[in-house]
Amino acid sequence: MLDYLIIGQGLAGTCLSHKLIKENKTFKVVDIVSNSASFVSSGMYNPVVLKRFTPVWNAQKEITKLIDEFTQLEKLLQVKLVYQSNLYRIFSNEDEVKTWIKKSQRNENLIPFLDSNVYENINPFIKANFGYGKVKHCGKIFVRELLREFRKYLISKNQLIDDIFDFNSLVIKSNYIEYKGLKAGKLVFCDGYALKENPFFKHLPMEGLKGETMVIHANGLGLKDIVKSKVFIMPMEKDYYYVGATYYYREVNDEISEEGKIELIENLNKFLQIDYKIIKQFAGIRPTVIDRRPLLGCHPEKSNVYIFNGLGSRGVMLAPTMAEEIYDFMEYSIKLQNEVDIRRFE
């Protein structure tokens, strides 16, 4: 009998699977490739909410953990996954400049991350009339490469079931579950927005937040760090850049749209002053929760059925720490933080 059966191999399922590998637990993952939020994610991480200049929840802990987690995965998979850089936030007016300087010098939770200097002319092709603020300890995780290579790894270990999960084939016993001839002690749903169709957890207040991004080629731009205004532009390689993102509540699907493309172009053109070519456009649905906190916990009646979901737009930051937390909860009954425990919605 397996220790675990995991449903979904996005960021949550991947980080939890990696934790199980390190703990010598037996498991399989049920997953089929799709336009999941994880698969189309930019992978960008930063410790500051750049709209209001406030610290991200548990930022220092999450940044430290994500670097450690994805560096370990680099070694396991023999692929580059971590790109560390600064992020330059374009100021839109003098008031933002004053607020930035004040917070960077007085807010103890922001001091490790915000440079109090105001920067000018970091790149001749970027317009920033009021200058930039620099955020430290930012970067990118190559999520698409991570999911692709980890999927290959699972296949090589006979730990992946390449299929859509069939609830009709699930049988739940008192101390184990059965699924298509398999038995496992615990069942964990890391199924992203598919939670909306999950009979065990669909009552939870998850919202679908559609996001669209695109990859461009801007020959000669030579940008080394992330730049953020209404949209961000993030270096990839050889003057290819990731641009995003849009946020749509009213249209919940994973199809690219002309409306999304136009919005990205208009916001990018406000500060990027060099010709570029759009290479590809992406769309996905972020599984977000009404209080912007993850969903972790156990089904109220099925003691061997669990959920690890709701990572939202900060998946690369949340996934490593939350994988540790749900594992400790399942294995050792260590209490979950109130902010992430699904019982907060009872």
Architecture per CATH nomenclature, i.e. the level-2 architecture of the domain at 2-40 and 145-205 and 291-345: 3-Layer(bba) Sandwich
Please give the share of residues in helix.
25-40%
Report the CATH topology name of the domain at 2-40 and 145-205 and 291-345: FAD/NAD(P)-binding domain
> Largest sheet, if any?
9 strands, mixed
**Separation of the first and last Cα atoms:** 33 Å
Give a count of the beta strands, DSSP E runs of length 2 or more.
19
Keywords:
single chain, 346 residues, FAD/NAD(P)-binding domain, D-Amino Acid Oxidase, Chain A, domain 2, nine-stranded mixed beta sheet, 19 strands, FAD/NAD-bd_sf, FAD-dependent oxidoreductase, oxidoreductase activity, FAD-dep_OxRdtase, oxidoreductase
What is shown here, in short?
This is FAD-dependent oxidoreductase. It contains 6 helices and 19 strands. The chain has helices spanning 11-22, 59-77, 94-106, 143-156, 258-269, 315-332; strands spanning 2-7, 27-31, 44-45, 48-49, 54-55, 82-90, 114-119, 132-141, 160-162, 170-172, 177-179, 182-189, 206-217, 226-228, 232-235, 240-244, 277-289, 295-298, 305-309.
What does this structure look like?
- With 346 residues, this protein is an alpha+beta fold.
- Among the domains are: 2-40 and 145-205 and 291-345, 3-Layer(bba) Sandwich (FAD/NAD(P)-binding domain), CATH 3.50.50; 208-289, 2-Layer Sandwich (D-Amino Acid Oxidase, Chain A, domain 2).
- Helix content is 25%, strand content 30%.
- The chain contains six helices and 19 strands.
- It has helices spanning 11-22, 59-77, 94-106, 143-156, 258-269, 315-332; strands at 2-7, 27-31, 44-45, 48-49, 54-55, 82-90, 114-119, 132-141, 160-162, 170-172, 177-179, 182-189, 206-217, 226-228, 232-235, 240-244, 277-289, 295-298, 305-309.
- The strands form three sheets. Strands 3, 6, 7, 8, 13, 14, 15, 16 and 17 form a nine-stranded mixed β-sheet that branches. Strands 1, 2, 9, 10, 11, 12, 18 and 19 form an eight-stranded mixed β-sheet that branches.
- A hairpin with a 3-residue loop joins strand 14 (226-228) and strand 15.
- Helix 1 (11-22) crosses helix 6 (315-332) and helix 2 (59-77) packs across helix 6 (315-332).
- The protein is globular, with a radius of gyration of 21 Å.
- It starts with a strand and ends in a 14-residue tail after the last helix.
- The model has no long low-confidence stretch (mean pLDDT 94).
- One of its GO terms (cellular component) is cytoplasm.
- Keywords: Oxidoreductase.
- Pfam families: DAO (PF01266).
